[in-house]
Design brief:
By secondary structure, the protein is mostly helical. Helices cover 64% and strands 0% of the residues. The model has no long low-confidence stretch (mean pLDDT 88).
């Protein structure tokens, strides 16, 4: 899709330059679900 790494770096740089970075604190829904599935899987062995 991209001919080389410098094209990707340029694209990401332009996308991020005027953006605001949002930091969310707390537990993520998908991470919590993955941990619960892993625990259930571990208990099932």
């Amino acid at each position: 899709m991209f001919p080389n790494a410098s094209c990707v770096v340029s694209l990401v740089d332009r996308l991020v330059y005027h953006s605001d970075i949002l930091v969310f604190e707390g537990e993520l829904y998908r991470m919590r679900e993955a941990k619960e599935r892993a625990e259930l899987k571990k208990q099932g062995k």
